[in-house]
Design a protein that fits this description.
Number of helices: 9
Distance between the termini: 24 Å
CATH superfamily: P-loop containing nucleotide triphosphate hydrolases
CATH topology: Rossmann fold
CATH class: Alpha Beta
Number of domains: 1
Structural class: alpha/beta
Number of strands: 8
Strand order of the largest sheet: 2-6-1-7-8
Largest sheet: 5 strands, parallel
Helix content: 40-55%
Strand content: 5-15%
CATH architecture: 3-Layer(aba) Sandwich
Amino acid sequence: MSSPKVIILAIDGPAGAGKSTIAKRLASRLGFLYIDTGAMYRAVGLWALRTGTSLSDAHRLEQLASMARVELLEGGTRVKLNGEDISDLIRTQQMSDAASKVSAVPGVRRALVDKQREMGARESVVMEGRDIGTNVFPQAQVKIYLDASVEVRAARRLRDLEAKGQAVPLEQVEREIRDRDMRDSTRGEAPLRQAPDAEYLDTSGMPVEQVEEAILRIYRERTANGKE
């Protein structure tokens, strides 16, 4: 059970909704640890591909997730797997797809959720993912569900990929996002859905600064101190 002084700000939503960008900014503003749970699943996906493990081999994937030593450094912006900095290696479309597949494995989710809960029990965090408010920290004081249209999310993802020198047709990005939405929302273990007590924000037409301020207002309303 978390200490009463520890605050969990949970941000859930589909791919491309702006979770990472917003969560990093909020963590900086509030002085909290930023935890990108998606990076943890990407790390397991990377390890699986490196070891030749099939992404349908649930038993072996669960073993890898349990053994994985995932460290979040520099405020959560850098990721290490078993001592190796993999921050850039996991930010590809291939790793996004791998993360979606390994995250559907119940044993993988259980192993990584245990690690996430350990992190959140030690200090106040902004944690983003797809099941934070519903499964990882259902008791989180502040829950946000970020969303945006598929077209907007695909355009954002395309800009990110192009910035990294990856040329991918927009139609392919849209198709992959729709496929991931389907996998994430229909998986048997902790599917993507909005928690009943989460605030819904459609970020399609909102600049990042507006989204940040909207969540800070919600944070102040739901916490006793509201200090930054």
